[in-house]
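Standup notes
- HV: blocked on the assembly model, inputs below
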Amino acid sequence: MEQPARGAPMPSLQHSRRSPLASSEALALASLGEAWLNLTWAERLAAFRTLSRWDAEELFLGLPADDQIEVLLAQPEEEQRAWMRLLAPDDAADLVQEAPDEQEKQRLLALLDDPGRREVNALLAYAEDDAGGLMNPRYARLRPEMRVDEAIRYLRKQAREHLETIYYVYVLDEQQHLLGVVSFRELFAAPSKQLVREVMRTQVVSVQENQNQESVARVFTQHGLTAIPVLDVENRIKGIVTIDDIVDVVQQEATEDIQKFGGMEALDAPYLKIPFGDMVKKRGGWLAALFLGEMLTATAMAYFEDEIARAVVLALFVPLIISSGGNSGSQASTLVIRAMALGELGMRDLGRVLRRELGAGIAMGLGLGAIGWLRIVVWHQLRPTYGEHYLLVAFTVFGSLVGVVMFGTLAGSLLPLALRRIGFDPASASAPFVATLVDVTGLVIYFSVASALLRGTLL
Amino acid sequence: MEQPARGAPMPSLQHSRRSPLASSEALALASLGEAWLNLTWAERLAAFRTLSRWDAEELFLGLPADDQIEVLLAQPEEEQRAWMRLLAPDDAADLVQEAPDEQEKQRLLALLDDPGRREVNALLAYAEDDAGGLMNPRYARLRPEMRVDEAIRYLRKQAREHLETIYYVYVLDEQQHLLGVVSFRELFAAPSKQLVREVMRTQVVSVQENQNQESVARVFTQHGLTAIPVLDVENRIKGIVTIDDIVDVVQQEATEDIQKFGGMEALDAPYLKIPFGDMVKKRGGWLAALFLGEMLTATAMAYFEDEIARAVVLALFVPLIISSGGNSGSQASTLVIRAMALGELGMRDLGRVLRRELGAGIAMGLGLGAIGWLRIVVWHQLRPTYGEHYLLVAFTVFGSLVGVVMFGTLAGSLLPLALRRIGFDPASASAPFVATLVDVTGLVIYFSVASALLRGTLL
C-alpha cells in the first residue's frame, strides 16, 4: 500500500498554487481520472497521450489490471518495458494474467528484470483467489538481534526499494520463519539501544498461502488490520497482503454473490467487457436449468386439469399465488445467504432461523391473505366476476396464501443452510431450487385448499 | 489505521516462543476471536472475562461497534470510562450511535475527556453514511515552512497521540487549508535541510465532508489510495478517511443492494439482531407492494377467462411461461444494477445495453422455446395429454417463450436505467416493477400468441 503505485496520492482540483503548470496538469489528470469510465478506449488513449509522463504514470498505476494491460499494449513496443517495470510484483502478476494468450504472457514477463520476473513467476503459481495470489513478496524485514537505531537505518535503505509497505516490519530468523512484527511507529518511538526482539510483538495474525481470498478478507475485517503476513505450512513468510487489495476482493465477491442471486453463473468480467457468447452461455445455462425445474409446474397443473376445467375461476389466481410464494422465498433466501456470507449465520443457528421464519411467514401470509380476500370480495361487490361461490373462492385464496407464504419463507431460509451442509455453495444453488420448489409446492397447496373448501360446490 | 485500535496486530497460534504465558494467552485470544461469532452473548462475556487486560483490549478494539457496545455495557460502570477512552474518536462516535436511547448516549459521551467529547460530538453531527461520518479528526499535520528534520522530530511527538495514521502527513496553512500531502516515507528519504513545502505533493485527491460513502469508496478504489482527506466547502481539512473503514462501507453497501434485489427494504442490521417486528415490517411492506402489483395478473387472467374455459390446456403452461419471463428479467436487472453500482455502466451505454440484451433475449428465448416445444411434443408421444392440436399448443408455447424471454431481458435491463434517469434508486425500485411488468405482459403475450395460432381450432 505504500509504493509509488498504490500509495501515491492522485491530483485533484484544489491546492495547486505553486505553479500554473502544476495546476493545469492537475486539472487534466483529475478530470481524466473521473471521466475515464465514460470514455471509449480511443478517447482514453488519446487523452492519456496528452498527460505529462508523471501524470500518465500516476493514472496508469491507479487503474485496474484489465485497464492497465490495454494501456500498456497501446504503447510503442520499445516503451512497454518501462511501463511494465513500474508495477509492483503483485500488480505485474495481475496484469500478466490479463494477457490475451500464452505467447503474449511470456513476452510481458520477458520485459521484467530477472529478480522481478522470478517474483512474478512465483506469484503466478498461486490460484488468483488464494492468499498467495493476493500477496506482495516485497515487505520490510529485520533480524531480532538488531538494535532499534540500526533497524531504522536499515529500513531507510530498504525504503528505497519498491516495498509494499514499510509501516509494518516483519522480524525473521535465518530460515525466514516469522518471529514477530513491529510497526514502524513503535520502532520510531522506542529507545535507540533496545533490541528489535524486545520491541516486537510475538503474537501475529497470519494467513496461509492457500487460504481463499474470502476467508482472508474476513480475517482483515474481524481483526481490523491493514496488513497480514502470508505463511507457508512451515510458518515461513512468503509475502504480505494489504488491505487495499482486500477492498477489491470484497467488491468482487459481492458481485459474484449478487449475480448468483440473480439466477446465473458469476460472469467474472464487467458487463460490457464479457464477450456476448460467454455471457449468453452463463445466463442461458442457468435459465435452461430453471426452465427444466419449472416444467414440473406444467406437470402439477396437468394433475389438476379436471379441477380447472370445472372451476376456471381457480386458474385466475394461479400467477398471483405462486408469485407470492416465490417472492417470500427469495426474500428469505437472500437474507440467509448474505448473512452466511458475512459469517453472521451458520448451521448452529438453524433453530433460531426456523422460529423466526415460521413466525415471519405466518404473519406475512396472514397479511397477504387478508389483502387477497378483500380484493376478491370487494371486486365482486363492484362487478360480479367470480360466480355465486365467490366467498368460498376468497377463502381458498386466503388459506392458500397463508400456506404458500409460510412455505416460501421456510424453504427459502432453510435450503441455503441445508445446501451448505451437504457441501454446495448456497449462493449458486439456491435460486433454482427455491424457485422450483416453491412454485410446484405452491400449486399443490392452492389446489389442495381448493379441493377441501370447494368440494361439493364448485368442484 | 495506525493507532493501537485498528493497527495493532492480533495474536495467532504461532510464534510465541518467548514465554509460555504469552503462548497460552495467544491461544486463548486467537480461539476466542475465531469462535466469537459462534458463541451466545453469555458465553462471549464469560470468555472475555478470562482474557488478560491487554488481550481483552485487543479483542474489544477489533470488534464492530454493535458488539463493542454490548461488551462495554456489560462491564461494571466504574470501568466503562477506561474502555470508552480506548477508542479513536470515529470509533467512539460509531459506538455512541449504537446506544439504545438518548440518555444512554449522553452517559457514554460523558465518559470521554473534554477534547475527546468535542471531537465525537463534531462527528455525530454528520450523517452516518457521509464522508464526515467516516472520518477521523486526528491526523498528522505539518507547516510548509518546516525543515524536513524538524518535521520528523515534530511527527515523533505527534506519534504519541492517538493519530489515525502518521504515514500520510497533511501540510496546512494557518486557516487549516490543505496545501499538500507528504508520505512519511518520502519525508524520511528527503534531505534534512529541505523544506516541507519542497517535498510535499500539491496535487491531492480529496472528498467533501457531505459526500456520500458509496462515492467515497469509489474514489478509493479508482485511485488506489489508502487515506483521503475530507474538506469542507472552503477547502479546510476536517479529518481523514482511511481505507480500513472503506472495507466496511463496501460490505455494507453490497448487503443493502443484495437485500433490495431480494425484494425487500435493506434491514440495516444483522439478520439475527434486528427485532422481529422491524424485520416483518421491512419484508412485509415490500411483499404487500409486490402482491398488489401481481393482482394485475388476476385481472389479466380474467380477461382471458373464456379462452381458458375453451382450452384448459392453455392454463397448464401459465406458471412455466411467466416464471421464464421473471427469471430472464431478474438476471438482466441484477446484471445491470450491479454494473451501475460499480460505475461500469451509465445512461451513456443505453444503446449498447439495448443491443446486447435484445440479442441475448432472442438467443435465450429461442433456446428455451425449443426445449419447451420438445417437452410438449415428446411428452405427448409418450402419453397423449394435450389433445389433437398438441402441435399447435407446442408452437404457441415456443412463440410465447421467445417473446416473454425477450421482453423479460429488455424490461429487466432498461428499467433500472430508466429509474435512475427519473431519480429513483435502481436497486430498490426494480424488483417489484420488473416482476409485475414481466408477469402481466407475459400473460398478454402468451394469450395473444395462443389467439393467433389456435383461432379456429382450439379457440
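- HV (later): unblocked. Confidence is low (pLDDT under 50) at residues 1-26 of chain A. Residues 350-382 of chain A form the longest helix (33 residues).
- Next: hand off to the docking folks.
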